Amino acid sequence: MSDLLTEFIDYMEKERNSSENTIQSYLRDIRQYIGYMDSNLVDITKANRTNVLSYIMYLQKCKKAPSSITRAVAGIRMFYKYLLQKGVTRDNPAYKLELPKKDKKLPEILTVEEVDLLLNQPDSTTFKGKRDKAMLELIYASGIKVSELVNLKVSDVDTALEFVKCVAAPRARIIPLGAPCVAALNDYLMYARSFMIGDENEEILFVNCSGTKITRQGFWKIIKEYKEKAGIKKEITPHTLRHSFAAHLLENGADITAISEMLGHSDIASTQVYARLVKTRIKEVYTKAHPRA
What we know:
Elements: H1 2-14, H2 20-39, H3 49-61, H4 66-86, H5 112-119, H6 127-142, H7 146-150, E1 157-158, E2 163-166, E3 173-176, H8 179-191, H9 193-196, H10 216-230, H11 238-251, H12 256-263, H13 272-289
Antiparallel strand pairs: 1-2, 2-3
């Protein structure tokens, strides 16, 4: 089975061009599924629909979130699809299973004051501080994903025309940048990056202290560091700044179609969650402040 898993990973990387994060999530979920089936003396190559449903019920008993169960079944389904192509199984027992509905929780966002507090934490007198300030300003100013942020090249940013070009899938887009972000980028590019890079031919915009491309995990640590330094109690991830970017634009009257375009959403329905979020926040403010609420 370990050989099949190794081959499956290779298939996901080379033929489906899946991200490292997706592959690792699938791998973790599939291993847990195999472990469950082994403990119940079920050969996964001969497992049927009932066996897979039994595993879903097991996950529910373990209080797994609907979103986690959906992700797990997606990985199992993909694995069986691969085994079917290889001729290892005769069908896909996870095909078209009815899954628990995902939680429809509204995303956590920061207030404008909390964003200002977070973005003002880096020490801009140091190379690292200049880099961190530029990264935080850029992700909040543009709403790009952390995977897009760490893959930006120097040529993707134009501080003269004040925009960032995001060429990552699924949609390439041009996003305008505000004055604070442009100032932080110029400070980093002029007075820090050239001292941090290990190779003068390096094209990646943001590098770590070793002079090579900063990782997603590296940026998560940066967020955590400044969150704690700022004394902000909310859980903050890179996606929190993306959510805050969209919600703050909506609160200030921006067109939802334009926000959808900047976020790179292929369907405006994906952006509607921010409209719900803003309505919820407005209702909360009204309830707390209006004398007859």
